[in-house]
Specification:
The chain has helices spanning 12-15, 29-41, 56-66, 102-105, 116-130, 145-155, and strands at 2-7, 49-52, 74-76, 138-143, 174-179, 185-192. By secondary structure, it is α/β, with parallel strands linked by helices. The model is unreliable at 99-104 (pLDDT under 50).
Amino acid sequence: MKIILTRHGETKETKAGILQWHIPWKLTSHGIEQAKKLASKLKDENIDIIFSSDLARSYDTAEEIHKRHPNTPIKSNKLLRERSFGDLEGKNKQDIGFYDKEQQCFFDSPKNWETMEKVYNRAKNFWEGIFPKYIDKTILVVSHDDIWKALVAVITWKNHQYIINIPSMGKASITIFEVNKNKEFNKIIYWDTQHLN
């Protein structure tokens, strides 16, 4: 299996530092341009199926890629949603001191936050749902930062506690793994954003 992981383009809220996890914000004009450049970069890939988060910013990014692959089906999947931060969603990071506690926030679990372990389990459920069904296929996954980190951890045989060591994924960046039938992986491209320049 060849699995291509990417993230949605810019939204007004991410640019402003607003926590937007499950809120379905839309792409900015710059975010749409990022998605188009991403689509252009991937135009020669023989993609068999596109999986996307059902949140608008990811699905809209997936649709830009789909324009270059009109015969490739897109399937939305709630397992690929970003992590939920409950009551903090829609709030500005600076207003709540999030920047000062960002690393600790990964594993803190106030009542209505989704823990990183739960995000990891979602990623694992998604992975187990496509593997080995698509073992001979090229899969594109369009999602969000925390679920991307969780997928990388699952694919590379790490546990949820390792996620804190994975740097944030650049918007509209590309990561590619090849995975064989024994789930042995080879990292081909990691966090590539050259196509956005």
